[in-house]
Structure formats: C-alpha cells, structure tokens
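Note to self: user wants both folds in one dump. Writing first protein now.
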Amino acid sequence: MISKIFGIIGDPIDHSLSPQMFNSFFQKKNLPHLYLRFHLKKKDLGRFVKKCRGWGLVGFNVTIPHKESILPFLDKIDPAVKIIGAANTVVVRGNRLIGYNTDAEGYSLSLRRETGFEPRGKSILVIGAGGASRAILYTLGRHGARQIFLTNRTRSKALRLCDEFKRHFPKTAFKVVRFHPTDLAPLFPKIDLLINTTSVGLKGTGFKNLPPLLFLHSKAIVSDIVYRPLITHLLKEAKRCHLKTHGGLGMLLHQAVLAYRIWTGKKALLDAPKVS
C-alpha cells in the first residue's frame, strides 16, 4: 500500500527522468512511496494547488514553465527563493505549501564535482532568463563570480533580471548582451564558462545566434542544464572544439537529493537514471 506520494509538475513533462530516479530508489529501499508526473498547463496551476492538498502528496518538484508562476500559490517560501524568484521544490505540510529552490545548490555541486570549476573571479555567459537561470545566477553571484553576461531572446526580461541581481550581489558585474553573433563574438575569448539554461537542447537543435565555440579560449567550459539528450547539440559542438563540457544530469541528481532531504529529513542515495 502506498504511504507517501511525490511528483513533478511541468509542461512538457514526458522528458522528466525524476519518476524513474525516485521510483527506482523507493523500490530498492522497499519504501511504500510513489513519484508521479503531472502534465500541467499554466492555466491549470491554481486548480492543481487547491486539489493537491487532499491527495496525500508529501511534496512535488516544479519544472518548466512553472518555477516562477508557482510562487503566488505558496503559503511560505525559503529565504533563498525570495532572492531567486523561483521555486523547484514544494513541501505539502498539512494545508500549507512551502517553496524551496534546490536548483541553485544542485547546479553548484554538480559543476564543482564534475569540472572543478569555481566561479570566484571568473567571467561567465548565461543564456536564458527563466526560472533555472535565476537559480544559477544566484549561485554564481553567491560564489563570487567577477562578471556575468546575460543573453536572452527577450531582451527586456534579461534587463529586469540583471537589475534584480545587481542589488543582491553588488560585487559581481551583471551585463545584458544582445542575443546575436555580432554582440556575443567579442565576449567569447573572455568567457571562462558558458551556460545554457534554456530548453533548446530538448529539441535536439542548437542555437542559430551563437558564434562558433572555437572563439572560446581553450580552458573554457561549456555547460548545458538539459539532460535529455545527455549530450545536447551545444555539448557536441563543444566536444568537437576540444572544450571541457558539463551536462545536466549531475544537476538533476544533486537537486533531487536535496529535495528529498527537505521532504523527509533523510538522505537519498540516488542512482543516475538511464538516458535515451
């Protein structure tokens, strides 16, 4: 008999490996728990929040595009979420929903352990201005990045984001750059880390507006938070240029371990799921 239910909400949601990862862990540990996918359109978010309180949910993860839009429906948020402006983990405690963000620390742990990269004093280019980008800007600023260039298809959204994070991390220089090869190319030789925080990699395509990755210096790292496919088009291009790469699977694992600890107070030793 199932005693605890966990889940993830998003749109799209079929690509998520979280159910595979958590349910495998529950099975190995003989835990009577279940982790489910909830395909949820933005218009249905409020209705889901109202109903989920009575479903026996212990907690749920939040993915694209709900990480920011979930906030008004939460009863309480962790202090880091106030700065980040996005939540990816929700605890259901009685009739109260409490929001956390494990993406920030999950990304930081993964990047450090897989590549040895430390943000302090470095120059970084971040593509995208959504919920995942907010978490990554937070952890880069908190760990002392020297300068962060932010580029996004919608420039106004990137400008708002930079203005927010400048206030929280005054020692880091934040600057918006137009998402166009002529503006990005002069930056590439100065960049120590390039991060894609968008869902472009899910479609199996690359970026039309990025200059050739050969323009990056030889010790630069290319990071893509998409984990399905495991090696995105961007990472393939980076490998062809003999650059060090960092995929999204490690971030998925670390943020999930942190989420489970928040939900239950216990540590989960999760195995990396198989990626097709």
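First done. Writing the second protein, which came from a different request thread.
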Amino acid sequence: RLVAQDAAETVIPLEGLDPVLLAEGKEAQGDVKFSVTRGRFRYLFVGAETKARFEREPARYEIQLGGTCARMGPSTEGNPDLFAAHKGRIYLFGSPECVKAFKAAPENYLEPDASHESHAAASAEALTKGRALVEKAVEAAGGASKIDGLKSYQEKGLATRRTRDGVAEMQTSLTWVFPDRVRQERVFGPNMMLATVVTPGEAFFVMGGADSMFDEQRAHFRKQFRRNLLAVLRARKGEGFTAAAVGAGRVAEANVEEVLVNFEGVRLKLGVEASTGRVLTLSYRGRGPGGVVGEIVETFSDFRAVEGLSLPFKVAGTFNGEAEPTLTYRVESLVVNGDVPPSLFEKPKPAAAQQ
C-alpha cells in the first residue's frame, strides 16, 4: 500500500505479542489486561514487569519509523502483523518480500541518523564562502526579489516509473503556494492518479478516496519537498540555515563549487557552476530502486527564462553513481505566480458525507 488508513484508527500490532520480549528475540502472547497505547498502536504485555519497562523506554520498544515499511520507507504503510526485530528494535513491512529483503541486508534500508551532524567543524572561511555561493545561485536563478517574492509555482511534466515490463512514462504535476502548501500528482493510467498534499494544517493522500498521513509520512514528504531547488534557495534566510563550501568539482565540462547545505532537517549538497552561478547538481542520501538507501544526484540542464526566473527544464538522476530512469524528469509547462484553486489543498470529503 502507498497510502495509510485512517490515522486515528488504533490497532493491536505484532499479533498481540509482547514488544519488550520481542525486541529481545522472544515471542510471548500479551494480555489485554496489560496494555499501553502509543500513537495508533495498542501494545499488549505478558505482565506488569514488561509493561513498566516499555513505559520507561517507549522509544526503544515501540514499533520504529511510525509503523511505515522499513524497506520501502515512509511512503509505504507497514502491515501491523508483518514484523521483524533487528538490533533490539521492531520494524514493520508492507509485504513478505520486504521482510525477506530487509533480513538479508538491513543496513541497505535503514537511514543513518544524521541529526547530530552539523557544520560545527566547518571553518569560518568555508561558511562565508558557502553563503556567498548560495547567494550567487540566487542571482543566477533570477535574483533575490524574484526568488523571495514567489507566491505560487505550477509545474507539469513527464517522469519515469518502473513497471513489471520495465519502465514507462507518467504525467506529473507539482503545485506550490508559498511558503508551505504543496500538492504533487502522479498519473499512472487513464483512471489512476495519486496526489500527495502537505499543508500547515494537515497532510493526506488522494487516490480515489482521501487518507490522512501518519506523522512520519508527513515529516518524510515535508523533507522531500524541501529538497526542491527553489525551496532550498528560498530557505537561505531561515533560522538554522547553514551552507559550507566543501571544494571544487566537475559536472560534465563545467567547473563547480560544491556547497553542503543544512536546514530544517534537510542535508544536501549543491554543485554551483563557478562561471555562471547556476546550480547544476543537487545531491543527497535517499531511497532508490527497491527502497535501498544511497546517494542520489540530480543534474539540471535546459535552463529557460520564466517570468524573470532561470529554471531547469530537465533533470537527470543517478543512484550510487549509476543512471536511474526513475530519477529522470522533463518539465512540459511551468506557470509562476498564477492563480491556484484553494480546493487543491482541501481534503476531499468521504462520499457518504457529500450526499
């Protein structure tokens, strides 16, 4: 499943097994007389002792990743009764295939904790140069007034998805109402569309009906949308934004200066063309084919002028150094500061409520 069920629904996971013992490699049926509810899960325990241990360290013993699939990541819901323990932590999965793949190589699917990473070790010179390179990129993209004055951005294009027969093109659209309302749509066929909507008030999926996101899914998609180049450039004045120059590089025939950027939980690297200031690459650690975590590099080209902005119309992606079709994208049309219907960000009501 790509979407969550009603986020308010509470379920007994792990087939009712005691999570404290399960984390230690033992299976014992819990008793409904000893239970703790955390989020959407109600955990059962064999007795007061393990219940007390859970309550002392809930983050250690509860299901990790908010119950999303440990192999495919937060975009995929985990089955509450499809689980595995790894290094004293319990994870859920979306399918038996996901369990099998995870158990074979768990290190491929668990993202490292980067919360402790910062630019504390960067020199003052590197930070000053990094900030200057970001400002240079802003100027190359149209200037601070254009970037900071954006009210809306509507992009339609063609991307690539994997199918059982290989790969196929799909239509996509991305709509921003700045600063913090985003809707992404992907069309898989004549009657198949998945929309992902994140607003300050709520976040949900639309595919036929509408389904609220879990907290972990909402955080995941917020982070994903912040990796958009325009979002990065607009964030530069925000509290906690840091940029450190980390050296020179090459993108095809162009010389670039590489800048490591941190803001709002996002960590990525920009490749800024030395001569023009254009951002030619944006790279970060993320999920590639089959949910494997690795290095994603987006390379931008075909820059065009749109309402005073200079924006890339082509993106070519690689994963761990290899060309990856699903990271390839081509912009077909782009509207800046156009009218956006507020209904795009409103959660559809259930069919029964509309009658």
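Dump finished. Worth passing along: The two ends are 28 Å apart (CA to CA).
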